Amino acid sequence: MTVGIVTDSSCDLSAEELEGTGIEVVPLYIRFGSEEFLDREEITVEDFYKKMAAAAELPQTAAPSPGRFEQAFRRRLTDGCDSVVCINLSAAISATMQSASQAAAELRSSGSEADVRVLDSRSVTAGLGTLVLQAHQLASQGADADEIESFVSEATERTRVFGTLDTLENLRKGGRIGGAQALLGSMLSIKPIVDISSGEVAEAAKQRTRRKALSWLRDQTRDAGPVQHLAVMHGEAADVDQFCEMLAEVHSGDIRVSKIGPVVGTHAGAGVLGMAYQVAAP
Q: Is the pLDDT of residue 182 over 50?
């Protein structure tokens, strides 16, 4: 493989999915007060949700340093890659893309002639993860950096990411909504649905029950026509299997399931459940 693939930990790819791929995952930082952890390296997804449930205030996330990205780039080059393609979470919601771009610039300023491409996925969690896996597959088939960059750019336009929140507690802790509004929303069982397909978080709908929220997501998938690379992502949601069964009513292909890590889980809260897919290419 002559093209090395690098991404960040918001891709939410599991250790099993990454095993043997050579994909470099640069971790974001998760802070609980004075405690700081490297995402998935020093804190597991399961421990993150347990710790967040016991915390009075929301944890904070921070982008990796440019040095972490530069180290990842150099490792792939040292391992024999001719070029590196780094695909990151949306620049509209994190400084991670900026950090990776700075690392590539510093590599060039050091005299390296290495070909390092830094791409904005305009996505996150399973949407980003799918793009990374596709880029790796292309690289393993012999595609060069130009071909992979062109594919990722095109597939990004077709990637959709939706999720429903099971709790308003994290929005309350984060100051996004007031305590009274959160209490009322919880009493009415309001389930907000967000759309991150543009790379920014937008409100897509509000449903009065969890079941209606999941039905809305299923119908969104159905109405999108034949979709590709359907993935379900969740934050320790107890009804993830039920949701997969609902999606199977409108989708005959495989469904990849992944857990939402701290980067998104911090804001979405435990029980968040959603899906990512790519609409069929014209």
A: no
Strands (E), 9-82: 24-26, 29-32, 35-38, 60-62
Instruction: Note the pTM of the prediction, 2 decimals.
Output: 0.93
**pLDDT in the model for residue 124:** 96
Q: Which two tokens stand for residue 129?
A: 């993860």
Backbone angles phi, psi at 31, to 5 degrees: -120, 125
Task: Give the integer Cα–Cα distance in Å for 112 and 88.
Answer: 22
Closest CA to 23 of 147, 148, 111: 148
Q: Which whole number is the average pLDDT over 3-21?
A: 97
* Average model confidence (pLDDT) across the chain: 92
* Listed residue (5, 137, 146, 149) closest to 75, CA to CA: 5
| 3-state DSSP assignment of residue 275 | strand
Using CA atoms, how far residue 220 sits from 81, 188, 233, 247, in Å, is: 40, 23, 16, 10
Q: What are phi and psi of 19, to 5 degrees?
A: -55, 125
Q: Whats the size of the chain, residue-wise?
A: 282
Q: Look up residue 106 and give its two tokens.
A: 């510093």
Task: In whole angstroms, give the CA distance from residue 160 to residue 33.
Answer: 34
Cα separation, 267 vs 251, whole angstroms: 29
User: Are the CB atoms for 256 and 232 separated by under 8 Å?
Assistant: yes
The kind and range of the H/E element at 43 are none
What residues contact 81, with CB distance under 8 A and at least 6 apart? 1, 2, 3, 4
Beta-carbon-side half-sphere exposure of residue 23 (alpha carbons within 13 Å): 30
Q: How far apart are the first and last CA of the chain?
A: 29
- H or E element: which one contains 274? strand 273-279
194 phi, psi to nearest 5 deg: -110, 150
What residues pair up with 202 in beta bridges, in sequence order? 195
